[in-house]
Design goal:
Blueprint (H helix, E strand, L loop, with lengths): L1 E2 L2 H8 L8 E9 L8 H9 L11 E6 L3 E8 L5 H4 E5 L6 H12 L10 E7 L6 E8 L5 H9 L29 H13 L1 H15 L21 E9 H11 L3 H19 L9 E7 L13 E7 L7 H20 L3 H12 L10 H4 L6 E6 L7 E2 L2 E9 L8 E8 L2 E9 L8 H17 L2
Parallel strand pairs: 5-6, 9-11, 11-14
Antiparallel strand pairs: 1-4, 2-7, 2-13, 3-4, 6-7, 8-15, 9-10, 12-13, 14-15
Helix pairs in contact: 7-11, 8-9, 8-13, 9-10, 9-13
């Protein structure tokens, strides 16, 4: 038995049928030239022989003290791979639309807590010959950045590399030091709690004296900030990274600022279309990884939280971009002055109000701590291949919550930025329209920046 960290326990405690707490990803692959009709079946047969599971793919909540199941991890020595790895086919006509409908259903279903908390779905039947892999892992096991890194390690920059690697099996030289002792985990937890006090002092100085830090509950009420149901809808699309770089260079901001500016314009247009745009600007929570490169495969969660003013009350796209850039710069400065353990404590304070969403009447009666999460996850910078099949799209899919009915997560994939949108199927109508709004918003920024 391994003791859970408070953060990991929180993700399990917060989960209900309406609120699945897993992160997922949809990867699209183009088979190598000359691949036969049985390529995906052969790929599946090569995947199932990998049965040497790393610890994070063997653990699920264990019961202690007579039945409490959110304090410790149990580890399965015999993982039922036929359950966790599934092969599916799309109905005709096999469009991306059918793929996203299937992915929407898979992303809305709960993981079985009596088994290790992950699934992988190998999906064929796309009319253009491509195939897809949808994976999901519980957020208590791993954060989105680490999950993407795990999947990327299964791929190769060499299109002639025919070895089939799978994320649940790590190279042997990385197996050491993956499972911390119960004493070490308890010590880290105590240190985290001890870090809260100095973090609060820093927060007070920055927020009250320097006015740098955006605080929770300053966001307006929107159609995203409501109680949600359990069904999900997902949307996904890729854009050339070069378009964002040209705007960055012309405007003197960061790539992430341009991403947030593009999202802000799309959200403004979407809400105007629904006759639901508030007078005050939307506030986005922007996760920032606090993990070092050496900790990439360690599992768990090491993510900071910054709140950003999206400037959606501004009509001019460059005005919005300026507001976003200044907001991100000021908030990042506060975090940069803190040791990592104190930054984690400050981040926990930022997102803590989400835990109150389960209190009856809280979501409807209070202002939201922020309006939605927009997360930019580092991905591969070079084209990648899996048994010669090129990774065409790599769309991260995150979590919707009560009071947070839409989530936008993206990852770079070679020369593209791949956007994955998740929404409550009931509360966010016509989610796919956000894709055209994102394109229109990006074009508006290009025109305004003169590129």
């Amino acid at each position: 038995m391994e003791l859970m960290s408070p953060t990991d326990s929180m993700f399990l405690l917060a989960e209900t049928r309406e609120h699945p707490m897993h992160v997922g990803g949809l990867a699209l692959y183009k088979p190598p030239q000359g691949a036969g009709r049985g390529f995906v079946r052969e790929l599946y047969e090569e995947m199932v022989v990998h049965t040497d599971f790393q610890p994070v793919f063997r653990k699920h909540p264990g019961t202690i003290l007579g039945g409490i199941a959110t304090l410790g991890w149990a580890f399965d020595n015999d993982v039922d791979l036929d359950y966790h790895l599934r092969r599916s086919a799309l109905p005709t006509p096999g469009r991306v639309r059918e793929l996203l409908e299937l992915t929407s259903r898979l992303h809305g279903s709960l993981l079985d807590r009596h088994r290790p908390l992950w699934e992988a779905h190998l999906i064929e039947g796309l009319s253009d010959g491509r195939f897809a892999v949808y994976t999901k892992l519980h957020h208590s096991l791993i954060d989105g950045v680490s999950a993407l890194k795990l999947v990327m390690r299964t791929l190769s920059e060499d299109p002639d590399d025919t070895e089939v690697r799978v994320p649940w099996t790590l190279p042997r030289h990385k197996r050491a030091h993956q499972r911390p002792s119960l004493l070490r985990t308890a010590a880290d937890t105590a240190a985290s709690i001890a870090g809260i006090a100095p973090s609060t002092v820093k927060l007070a100085r920055a927020a009250l004296l320097e006015q740098q830090l955006t605080l929770p509950f300053g966001a307006p009420k929107t159609m995203f900030n409501v109680k949600i149901g359990g069904a999900r809808r997902v949307a996904a699309q890729s854009w050339p990274l070069e378009r964002f770089k040209r705007i960055k260079d012309a405007s003197g901001v960061t790539i992430n600022d341009v991403v947030l500016g593009t999202c802000a314009g799309a959200l403004r247009a979407y809400l105007m279309e629904q006759d639901a745009l508030p007078d005050r600007p939307l506030i986005a929570m922007v996760p920032v990884s606090l993990r070092s490169e050496q900790e990439a495969d360690a599992g768990g969660n090491l993510v900071g939280s910054i709140l950003c003013n999206l400037g959606t009350d501004r009509e001019d796209p460059m005005d919005r971009l300026t507001v976003i850039s200044e907001s991100m710069r000021g908030n990042k400065q506060v975090f940069a002055e803190l040791p990592r353990i104190q930054a984690l404590a400050l981040s926990a304070m930022m997102i803590a109000p989400l835990g109150l969403a389960a209190v009856p009447g809280f979501v409807g009666a209070t202002a939201p701590p922020f309006n939605l999460v927009i997360s930019n996850v580092p991905g591969p910078r070079q084209p990648l291949y899996w048994k010669g099949a090129r990774l065409d799209g790599n769309y991260p899919l995150s979590i919707a919550l009560d009071g947070q009915a839409m989530n936008i997560t993206l990852a770079n994939n070679a020369d593209n930025l791949d956007f994955g949108l998740v929404g409550c199927r009931r509360s966010v109508p016509h989610l796919q329209r956000m894709l055209s709004h994102l394109e229109d918003s990006l074009k508006s920024l290009e025109v305004a920046a003169g590129v």
